């Protein structure tokens, strides 16, 4: 009978893996697991921060007594763990060099743009100066031409006036000569008449002396 009883199967241990992972892979898996745990913890902290921020916004109007009732555990949870950020000096130096290079390039571009603007400004001013100089020269030529024309007309008028003046002067001189001639003739006539009258008077006086008569007109003047 004892032989007929079935033998109990002894518990066998876990089967040994045929190809156990190398230690490097195991360490990598452990690091990955640790990183995932850290990420989950950080996410949990961020969620707690967001919830705490929402709670602070909702509880702005709560009185001082309600604020005192907040558990210190929540405050401790609210304080995030400050993890110092390790910066590689080489990376920081490279970033500073890149920033400096960008600033230098920007400054060079700005100076180039300002130089182009300055050159354009000088060129436009030179063009404006040349245009104004040409216009001023044209105005000066026009002025000189008009002055010459007016002066020529003035000379012609002066010549005409001088000619007319000479003619009028000659006419006046001729008139003066004629007047003087007429005056001399009249003077000569008056003088001749005077001489004739003197002769007549002398002849009449001689007759009166010879005849012994007296002139009547003379005594008539002295009569009553």
TrEMBL record:
Superkingdom of the source species: Eukaryota
Coiled-coil region list: 147-185
InterPro entries tied to this protein: Remorin_C, Remorin_N
Protein's UniProt name: Remorin
Record family assignment: Belongs to the remorin family.
Span of the signal peptide: none
Chain ranges of the Remorin C-terminal domain: 112-217
Keyword Metal-binding appears in the UniProt entry: no
Biased amino acid composition, Pro residues: 12-24
All residue ranges annotated as the Remorin N-terminal domain in the record: 60-108
Keyword rRNA-binding: no
Keywords: Coiled coil
Pfam families: Remorin_C, Remorin_N
Compositional bias ranges of the Basic and acidic residues kind: 1-11, 29-78
Region (Disordered): 1-79
């Amino acid at each position: 009978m004892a032989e007929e009883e079935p033998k109990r199967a002894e518990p066998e241990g876990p089967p040994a893996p045929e190809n156990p992972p190398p230690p490097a892979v195991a360490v990598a898996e452990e690091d990955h697991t640790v990183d995932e745990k850290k990420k989950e913890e950080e996410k949990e902290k961020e969620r707690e921060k967001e919830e705490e921020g929402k709670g602070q916004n909702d509880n702005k109007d709560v009185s001082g007594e309600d604020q005192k009732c907040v558990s210190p555990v929540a405050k401790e949870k609210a304080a995030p763990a400050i993890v110092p950020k390790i910066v590689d000096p080489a990376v920081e130096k490279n970033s500073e060099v890149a920033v400096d290079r960008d600033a230098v390039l920007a400054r060079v571009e700005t100076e180039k743009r300002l130089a182009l603007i300055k050159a354009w400004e000088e060129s436009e001013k030179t063009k404006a100066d040349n245009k104004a100089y040409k216009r001023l020269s044209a105005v000066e030529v026009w002025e000189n031409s008009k002055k010459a024309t007016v002066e020529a007309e003035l000379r012609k008028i002066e010549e005409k006036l001088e000619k007319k003046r000479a003619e009028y002067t000659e006419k006046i001189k001729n008139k003066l000569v004629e007047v003087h001639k007429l005056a001399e003739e009249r003077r000569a006539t008056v003088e001749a008449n005077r001489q004739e009258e003197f002769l007549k008077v002398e002849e009449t006086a001689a007759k009166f002396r010879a005849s012994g008569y007296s002139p009547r007109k003379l005594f008539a003047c002295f009569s009553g």
